[in-house]
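Exercise: predict the structure of this protein bound to 3,4-dihydroxybenzoic acid.
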Amino acid sequence: VQTQVGIIGAGPAGLMLAHLLLLNGIDSIIIERNIQSNLEGRIRACVFEQDTLDLLDRIHFKSINGRRLHLEGLMYHGIRMQFNGKRFRLPLSKLTNGKAVTVYGQHLLIEDLITDLKLKGVQMYFQVKNVEIERLDSERPMIRFHHSETDYEMHCDFVAGCDGFYGVSRASIPREILTEYERKYPFGWLCVSVAVEPSCEELIYSYHQHGFALYNKRSNELSRFYLQVSTGDSIEDWSDERIWEQLHLRLNMTDPHWTIKQGQILDKTIFSVRTFMVEPMQYKQLFLVGDVAHIMPPTGAKGMNMAIADAKVLSDALSEWYMTDSNDQIQSYSEKCLHRVWLAQEFAMSMSELLHRNFDLESKNDGFDQQMIHARQRHLAQSEHVQRAFAHMYTGTPF
Ligand code: FAD
Ligand code: DHB
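Solution:
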């Protein structure tokens, strides 16, 4: 098969890239390892920055799915922060001259983007195997893959590696070209979906002496909760009873009395929290887009927004190349993306530090680090100047 841009991976990065390229008349083909229903059932991100939402509006959805984001997405003009039982509101819109974030499930976005790409005639192969990238040194690289008992060769001008942290794209670049940075955190997150009406109209980020907790309303019938857990904890360590006990402990307010609403736990998973960056994000005709190149701690809700921002930078660069033959933007792709990602990384890391207990570090010193965190928490709670800087980063830097 032949196309202009071969896209590996149908996550937010790959699907958005295909849409944005199409707007500029550029063809692409997407190959994806998973089956479609798996992608649409995987509950993950949900906080959309204002610019991400505006970009989605620009792709002109053909199907009614485009409207679903506005109909079902919940716009938050503020979020709640809680330090040891004391809660305050960060009025995001007031602090940023009108910016807000929207909560809408990533799995719903994936479904919307796939439905529309199909309507627009973009070819997609699901459940592909044995993906290999070849001839990156030539002008026409090739992606080999296996699909429905057939071996395929996809010939293209460019390869977009949008295949997430465990994909093949990054591994196709010679090791000596890449610099990798990694930080592991001494904790993980337990994520819980609960069938219950909302406990609060806005997101709550809570720091408690037992560790971090997060509440988010996903709809009138579904809430998401997250708990900081120890590295190495498995789901068997977390009975429903223990989960509710810790959620109440870490999220309930001391004064005035307020409590979370309980319901049926629909699913629970644990993942480890990590930071990963790779530089550069390009090698010859191959571009790394999204999680394949950078993972950030989930606390700032930045990962999906960064993946979509990379897709925008790449589509602009490739469009310029096809239209004018200039490769200026192609050459600056990596630098431009990394500039934004390092900034988001710094925000996500400092927000994580602000809200989690680092029991490992604390056990090795006299409490100095914890005092630092408490000072930063007081500063955020009391200073409008600090709140403004926080709100600007939380709602997202402009594209
Ligand atoms: P992915 O979504 O990982 O997609 C990569 C795709 O490539 C996958 O579909 C995979 O199956 C496919 N693939 C892999 N290998 C191959 C191969 N060899 N061949 C073909 N296909 C392949 N981010 C936010 O911005 N806001 C949030 O609120 C937020 N909350 C989160 C909450 C949780 C619990 C988690 C886990 C993450 C959260 N994130 C959030 C992060 C966000 O989900 C990711 O950053 C985002 O999914 C990255 O998109 P991507 O397209 O780069 O990668
Ligand atoms: C959610 C996840 C996050 O990482 C975050 O910062 C806020 C909300 C969520 O999945 O609801």
